[in-house]
Write a structure and sequence with these properties.
Shape: globular
Largest sheet: none
Strand content: under 5%
Number of helices: 7
Number of domains: 2
Distance between the termini: 70 Å
């Protein structure tokens, strides 16, 4: 009789093998296995409210851009949000130019730099549009946030 623990261990082992294969090729991402990386504290800036504002804005903007400009196909998943977070981290490092934001961006690029291949139309069954518009949405959200917060400060 096989134990449930043995099945879980086998599934975990297969997931690790698949992740290693994707990492070796520099492609693919599995948001469900990313957990809660420390970069999430730096996505929205300071505080949970800004994090959730950033998340909602990236989801809405990338979704609208995909809806308007993407080819007629099924666009399913959270990859727009994942790429949006990547864009937010990169844009914050560029606009703030603080040592911490630049260090976070460098670590993020080193860990997830293979994501950038996802913005290219390499496979017909992958929605590169969600990836591309998610990245663009992340950058635009930071730019708009910076612009409006600057105009509100006395």
């Amino acid at each position: 009789m096989h134990s449930l623990g043995g099945a879980r261990a086998k599934a975990r082992e297969n997931a690790v093998k698949q992740d290693r294969a994707h990492a070796a090729n520099g492609i693919g991402h599995h948001p469900e296995r990313l957990g809660y990386p420390p970069q999430t504290e730096f996505i929205g800036g300071t505080g949970k409210r800004r994090f959730w504002e950033t998340t909602v804005n990236v989801v809405l903007l990338s979704g609208v851009l995909v809806w308007i400009f993407a080819r007629e196909a099924y666009h399913v998943g959270a990859s727009g949000l994942v790429f949006g977070y990547f864009g937010v981290i990169m844009a914050r490092a560029y606009t703030e130019r603080g040592i911490i934001t630049i260090a976070i961006a460098i670590v993020t690029v080193m860990a997830y730099g293979g994501l950038l291949w996802g913005v290219l139309p390499m496979r017909s069954y992958v929605s590169f549009e969600s990836h591309l518009f998610g990245l663009i949405a992340g950058i635009v959200v930071v730019w708009l946030d910076r612009k409006f917060r600057k105009s509100q400060t006395p």
